[in-house]
């Protein structure tokens, strides 16, 4: 499912790889579910699932640490999460999400 979601997919894949590299298994598994939803043709459900990671206390931006990463890798991780958030905000569609039910 690359089409208009190619950047979103690439971002998810790169973020998951980086998260696994630094033992951020909770968030890697969380975004893996977003990727799986995308793979099965439910891009809007995937986007809404990803967006939920940015809401409230304990969100990805509150709890992501990249323990053991150097500054460059940490910056990349936060750049990928910010990019993912922005991609999701641009591509979300409530109506398309309802249709995917």
Q: What report would you give on this structure?
A:
The protein has helices at residues 6-21, 25-39, 43-52, 60-63, 71-91, 94-99. With 101 residues, it is mostly helical. It is elongated and about 40 Å long. It starts with 5 loop residues before the first helix and ends with a helix.
Percent of residues in β-strands = under 5%
Mean pLDDT: 90
**Element pattern in H and E:** HHHHHH
End-to-end distance: 18 Å
- Largest sheet, strands/sense/barrel: none
Shape: elongated
How many β-strand stretches? 0
State the share of residues found in helices, binned by percent.
over 70%
Count the helices. How many? Answer: 6
Structural class computed from helices and strand pairing? mainly alpha
- Regions with little confidence, pLDDT below 50 for 5+ residues: none
Radius of gyration, in Å, reads 13 Å
Key phrases:
6 helices; 101 residues; 71% helix
Summarize the structure.
With 101 residues, the chain is mostly helical. Helices cover 71% and strands 0% of the residues.
How would you summarize the topology of this molecule?
Blueprint: H1 6-21, H2 25-39, H3 43-52, H4 60-63, H5 71-91, H6 94-99
